[in-house]
Amino acid sequence: MRNLYIVLFCFFLGATFTALFAPGIVSWYFDPPTSIGVSCKEAVSWGINAYQKMVFIGGVFGLLGGVVMAFVLRRKKTVVAV
User: Fold this and answer.
1) From residue 59, how far is each of 21, 23, 76 by CA, in Å?
2) Which of 8, 18, 38, 55 is deepest in the core (most CB within 10 A)?
């Protein structure tokens, strides 16, 4: 159960950090593939889709990091010879 909590914590931590930093990264790294005229619906739609992908990727990285941490930090059970 402890491993599940570690994995879920890292998942939400990764998603939170991605949600904080993804809009800046998207606006810095990518240019929208559409020209922005009077209507910017296509550009906003593209930006939101890119943001959602970044949040998902950050959550997956956090999840994988949590799995790794769960295996590294798990307690080793001692075997008692009787």
Assistant:
1) 13, 15, 28
2) 18
